[in-house]
Amino acid sequence: AQKITQTQPGMFVQEKEAVTLDCTYDTSDPSYGLFWYKQPSSGEMIFLIYQGSYDQQNATEGRYSLNFQKARKSANLVISASQLGDSAMYFCAMRESAGGGADGLTFGKGTHLIIQP
Amino acid sequence: NAGVTQTPKFQVLKTGQSMTLQCAQDMNHEYMSWYRQDPGMGLRLIHYSVGAGITDQGEVPNGYNVSRSTTEDFPLRLLSAAPSQTSVYFCASSPGTGSYEQYFGPGTRLTVT
Asked: B15 — phi, psi (to 5°)?
């Protein structure tokens, strides 16, 4: 079974609208972390936001927020007031603590977001 | 402070050739890892290391070797390149237990013909 599922291969959104990118995850580990990365066409991986499984509040970083619904195993990324520069691939990823956090991240297949003027 | 650096940026190999992808970090991070990214896919973990002298396999280790003789360097070796290893390779580092931050290098685009 996939550990990270991103069901939206591509999305078109009008500039200035809010965007929600879906991510569901699967783990039996009670301690885990959830990440969102942005990958523009230039190829680098840009960290956006992190949510720990024990965090009481949803994470926020500027225009990015993470809608964390633990019971549903959902960690959707919300981008408020989208901008043309937000056009990129977006990846959801998880780190489980079973390996002490050392054994890397498991990534979803990504969502290609295109912001239209 | 250069962060995570990778060399080369681009490489073309013929089937059967060997090469080493270099990765270095200057942040004194304990954890380092290698990922590959294929078209339409997220990153998949190849190998990782929790410190100098300690390495372990990730999800897709076949065809790759690693070693970690120093904290700073984590090279990835392809012993006999195959077309299936055509991919973009990312190195990443993390401070260690208790920290969630993971820093990625700029990537190496490898083509095997």
From this structure: -55, 130
B30 contacts in A (CB within 8 Å)? 102
| Of residues A109 and B97, more confidently modeled | A109
Q: What is the dihedral of CA A48, A29, A96, B50, to 10 degrees?
A: 150
pLDDT tens per residue, range A90-100: 999 998 875 55
pLDDT cut 90: percent of chain B above it: 84
Q: Which residue of B has its CA nearest to A35?
A: B100
Residue A111: partners with Cβ closer than 8 Å, 6 or more residues away: A6, A8, A9, A10, A11, A21, A22, A89, A90
CB spacing of B100 vs A50 below 8 angstroms:
yes
Instruction: Considering only CA atoms, give the Rg of chain A.
Output: 14
Q: Please work out, in degrees rounded to the nearest 5, the angle formed at the alpha carbon of residue B45 by the alpha carbons of A68 and B59.
A: 100
Amino acid A21 reads L
Structure tokens at B71: 């904290």
* pLDDT tops 80 at residue B26: yes
Residue position matching structure tokens 């964390």: A68
On whether the CB atoms of residues B46 and B38 are closer than 8 A, the answer is no
Compute the residue count for chain B: 113
CA atoms within 13 A on the CB side of A14: 1
* pLDDT value at B53 more than 70: yes
Helix ranges (DSSP H) in A4-115: none
